[in-house]
Write a structure and sequence with these properties.
mainly beta, Jelly Rolls, 2 domains, 9-stranded antiparallel sheet, 1 helix, 31 strands, steroid binding, glycoprotein, disulfide bond
């Protein structure tokens, strides 16, 4: 297929809050909130994509350790974790995940190095990461074992290190084009128990309030009832039979609100899937027709064909219902797909979804909400357990 996922241009003008209280901190003379380097930090908090969540600076003469360690937890396969630089960004280091695997990118004395490897870290468990510089090597240890080891040696005379060093979490302080490997920076992840070069200077936050992390998580996308995510339907390609498949995995009895909605361009809302926790029912509506299901199933498959819409529960064709509507697929050609809310209606938020979608697939491919225009309270890859 050609380009499969594409975010919708524009944004959702909605207010934002995440469950729980803000992390502790205090202001400084520049009005920036200051936090301890060992704070619990939710890296996916909304801000400009490449902008750090928190950052700090220290004089190299004050550093007596060349080692940083922290604990890290995520189900997200891709995103930016940790950045450091010297010489005001001439030499730099970036640690991220790509397909769940650690990726280190380093610039030093004009050399650019990129290396990835080790175990996948997006298993939802807390992992202890340690980054150190040992002579000509940069080493990443994961849970006490060496994950990556990068050697760098320049023909130039090595300079005596002096000046300042900058550190950042969740963002970088250089242009993203300088990196060898490009990736999506936003990451649904948490960092805690940081010990950064054994320094105790406070970090500055680039947001007014720092959001907390859930104590326990499980895989999925969590909607707290405050907003929804939007995709452009025109990028979802039909298969060879002219069909389009949408599959949802969830405990539908625990969900309440609009799960999916589709609004063709310049037309009224045509399709929606709604859950009612009180009645334990899921209603699938297409134009004037609707199907009401008892929400005892764990997987819901919706197939859009040329002249039919079919709804299948738990992969059991004997538990399927068809709506004969012609044409169905035109709904997808130019419009918007809403996940967790009702497009074009109910701006009071009464239809926003509350609950965890364990998995969302379109054409048998996982739908990554990080590629949507989404409300900032939605956790793309984790739900509270």
């Amino acid at each position: 297929m050609a380009v499969f996922w594409k975010a919708v241009a524009g944004g959702l003008l909605l207010t934002v809050s995440l469950l729980g209280g803000p992390a502790e901190g205090q202001g400084n003379e520049r009005g920036k909130k200051q936090v301890s380097g060992n704070s619990v930090l939710f890296l996916s908090q909304v801000r400009d994509l490449w902008r750090p969540l928190v950052h700090t600076a220290v004089n190299l003469s004050e550093i007596n350790s060349i080692k940083s360690s922290f604990q890290f937890r995520t189900y997200d396969p891709e995103g930016l974790i940790f950045y450091g630089d010297t010489k005001n960004g001439e030499d730099w280091f970036v640690l991220s995940l790509m397909n769940g695997i650690p990726l280190m990118q380093i610039s030093k004395e004009g050399m650019l190095v990129s290396v990835e490897g080790g175990m996948k870290l997006n298993d939802g468990k807390w992992h202890t990461l340690e980054v150190s510089n040992q002579e000509k090597f940069v080493i990443l240890e994961v849970d006490g074992s060496t994950g990556l080891k990068v050697g760098m040696q320049s023909q130039q005379t090595e300079e005596v290190m002096s000046g300042g060093l900058r550190l950042a979490l969740g963002g970088i302080l250089i242009e993203k084009e300088k990196m060898i490997v490009q990736f999506k920076p936003q990451m649904d992840a948490c960092v805690r128990h940081g010990n950064w070069l054994n320094i105790s200077v406070p970090w500055e936050a680039e947001v007014e309030e720092l959001w907390p992390c859930y104590e326990n998580i499980r895989p999925g996308s969590y909607f707290p009832g405050t907003g929804f995510a939007v995709f452009n339907t025109s990028v979802f390609q039909t298969d060879e039979d002219g069909e389009l498949r949408v599959e949802l995995w969830a405990d539908f009895r625990q969900m309440n609100g609009t799960i999916l909605s589709i609004k063709p361009s310049q037309k009224e809302l045509e399709f929606k899937v709604e859950a009612n926790k009180n009645t334990e029912e899921v209603t699938v509506s297409f134009r004037e027709q609707k199907v009401i299901l008892k929400s005892t199933f764990k997987k819901l498959l919706i197939m859009f064909a040329r002249a039919e819409l079919r709804v299948v529960q738990d992969g059991d064709e004997s538990q399927s219902t068809a709506l004969s509507v012609d044409p169905v697929l035109t709904t997808w050609r130019d419009g918007l797909l809403g996940i967790g809310g009702l497009l074009g209606e109910a701006e009071d938020g009464s239809h926003f979804l509350t609950g965890c979608l364990e998995k969302i697939q379109v054409q048998d491919r996982d739908l990554d909400l990080d590629l949507a225009v989404k409300h900032t309270s939605i956790s793309s890859h984790s739900c509270p357990a």
